[in-house]
Amino acid sequence: MIDVVLLFGRIVLLALLYLFLYATVKTGIGMVGGGKTKTARRGLALRVTHGPREITGISIPLAGPVIIGRSPDADLVIADDFVSSTHAKIVPAGDGYLLEDLGSTNGTLVNGQPATRPLPVVAGDVIELGQNRLEVVRL
Asked: Are 129 and 82 in contact, with CB atoms under 8 Å apart?
């Protein structure tokens, strides 16, 4: 009788192990296949074309939300009196990105247009924060 119970326990344990492995592989395949939209989005970056000498020429990949400002907590720190502590934010939206001014004192321009509402940004767009100029570029 004890042999039958042990055999049944082994079969149940083996079945649970296979179910666990199946769920793990299925989740892993979903992660790999689901990354297609993210890789298309990762092809953009934010490049500083005019600003403080220390950051001119650097590029920040747009792989997620990017906060621009004077605060040390910002993703792109611009040490300029015309830039607010949290000046603007670029966030993923659908297949592209939106730039939103975060209530800055001096405002934000996208291709010369004031960002009074969230504006879409694409490769080639120029973003101006005070005397600083950023360009959205392809990686």
From this structure: yes
Q: What pTM did the predictor assign?
A: 0.68
Neighbour tally for 117: CB within 10 Å? 8
Q: Where are the beta strands (DSSP E) in the chain?
A: 44-50, 59-61, 66-69, 76-77, 88-93, 96-101, 109-110, 113-114, 119-121, 126-129, 132-138
Q: What is the pLDDT of residue 30?
A: 60
Rounded to 5°, angle at Cα 135 from 125 and 73: 120
| Residues belonging to the chain | 139
The CB density around residue 137, as the number of other CB atoms within 10 Å, is 16
Closest CA to 84 of 71, 99, 66: 71
Cβ atoms of 41 and 62 closer than 8 Å: yes
Residue range 37-82, pLDDT digits in tens = 444 445 799 999 998 998 999 999 998 899 999 999 999 999 999 9
Tokens standing for residue 47: 């490049």
